Amino acid sequence: MTREPLDVPAVAGRPCSVAGALEIIGDRWSLLIVREVIFGNHRFGEIARNTGAPRDRLAARLKALVAAGILEQREYQASPPRSDYHLTRAGRELGSVLQVLREWGDRWAVESPPVSVRHHDHELRVGSVCAVCGERVRAADIARSMRVDGWDMAGPTG
Q1: Distance CA 91, CA 37 (A)
Q2: How far is the C-alpha of 152 from the C-alpha of 34, rounded, in Å?
Q3: Domain extents for the chain?
Q4: Taking the domain 17-111, which CATH number applies?
Q5: pLDDT at 7 (0 to 100)
Q6: CA 68, CA 62: separation in Å to the nearest integer?
Q7: With contact defined as beta carbons under 8 Å apart, do 38 and 70 qualify?
Q8: In DSSP terms, which residues pair with 122 in a beta bridge?
């Protein structure tokens, strides 16, 4: 499967995919915008109402998410011209990130979970299964290594 990489600005410090992702979606408003589009709210007014974002900040974040390839604009009215926002493939893949954040937030950030997410007849709980071998992923079975010259897991080597 081929994909178009997003245009991620270089970040200082350790070469890291997490740092690159946070350069694109690492602020509160970006992830809340993606949440709203996942929930089916595609228009500026809906997104503004449901995120609580200041309108100028929301406009800037929407523009940045479109430029980054997370959202795309689709014209829904020609006169006057009006567009709404839809997730690209990269944006849809953020759904699993938001699900894990929701579960963490349900456990650690709120008194009572405000949203129920169901999978068939039960509450959805995300688990980690290796897509290659099908085994359940346990922390004790994970090994990490740097693939960038001049770095190891402790930091820069030179």
Answers
A1: 9
A2: 34
A3: 17-111
A4: 1.10.10.10
A5: 62
A6: 10
A7: no
A8: 119
